[in-house]
Amino acid sequence: MPGALNTILGVNILQIGRIFVLLGLAVYAVFALVVVRQVKLMTEVVSGLMVGFLRLIAWLFFLFSIFIFIFTLLVL
Amino acid sequence: MPDLYSAKLNNPPSPPVSPPMEIKNETERDFLPPSRGGSLSSLILRPRSEIHFDTQEPEEKILMIVRAHWLTNFPWVIIAIILFLAPMTLSFFPLLSSFPANFRSMFVIVWYLVVLMYVFERFLSWFFNMAIITDERVVDIDFINLTTKKVSDADLDKIQDVSFTNAGAIGTIFNFGDVLVQTASEITEFNFENVPNPALVATVLQRLRTEEKIEAIEGRVR
C-alpha cells in the first residue's frame, strides 16, 4: 500500500508519516509539560493529598514522553 | 487605738466578666461523624491537619472534603481497559500489516501513550474536583480540564438553601447524589455532583449554617 502510494504521488509516504508521528509526539510532550504544571498548581491549591506521588507521576509522564520522542527519532 | 472610721479603699472596679469565647471545637460538633477517609476517598471527614488549601485562614478548620463517588469512575475505567486491550486485536485483524515493522511498533507505542494520557487526565479530573467544607465556608474546586480550573467559595452564613437528590437506581443503591447549595454570595449556586451520602453532606452544611448564624447573633464572628 505505501509502495503504491509512493509510485502514484512520487513522494515518500513513510517519510511524511515519520514527520507526522514526530510532530504528534512533540505536541504530546508539550501537553505532558502542561500536565506537570497543572498538577503543581493544583497541589498548591489543595496540599496534603498525595502531593509528592502526583508530582512524581506527572514528571515521569513528561520524561517518558520525551524518551518516546527521542526513541522515535532513532527508530523511524 | 481602734479606728473609728476607715475610708473604703478606692479599688478600681473589676472589669465585667464576659462569658468565655465558645469557639466550637470539632468534638462539640456531634452532628459531624468521626474522622475517616484517606487521600483517595470520596468523603473525607475531619481530615488530618496537614491537608490545607491555598486561601485557608490560620484558624480555619477543614471539616469535610467531598468528591464524586468512586463509582462514577467506572465508565472511564472500562473504556481505558478496552483501549488498553485494543492493540491485541491487531493479531486477528492485521490492519497495519502493510506498514513496516518499526511503524507498526510505533503505532502501538503511540496508542498506549494516548491511553495513558486519557487515564491520567480522567483520574486528575476526579481527584481535584472537590468541595471543601470548613467551619467558615464552602470551597468548590472545579478541575474542568488539564488547562482550566475554577475555585469559588461562599461563607457559611451566606448559604440560603441546601438540597440534595439521590437520582437513579445506581445512586440509590450506592447512596450518592447531588447536593445543591444556594447562596447569597457572588456565586449563587454550588452543585456538588454525585457525592457520597448527600444527606449527610446537606445536614452538615445546614447545621454549620445554623451554627454560624448563632455565632453572628452572639457576636462571636471571627
From TrEMBL, chain A:
The chain crosses the membrane at residues 16-36, 56-75. Keywords: Membrane, Transmembrane, Transmembrane helix. This is Uncharacterized protein. It comes from Candidatus Shapirobacteria bacterium CG03_land_8_20_14_0_80_39_12. It holds the Pfam family DUF5657.
Automatic annotation (TrEMBL), chain B:
Keywords: Membrane, Transmembrane, Transmembrane helix. Residues 1-23 are annotated as: Disordered. It comes from the Bacteria. The chain crosses the membrane at residues 74-95, 101-120. This is Uncharacterized protein. It comes from Candidatus Shapirobacteria bacterium CG03_land_8_20_14_0_80_39_12.
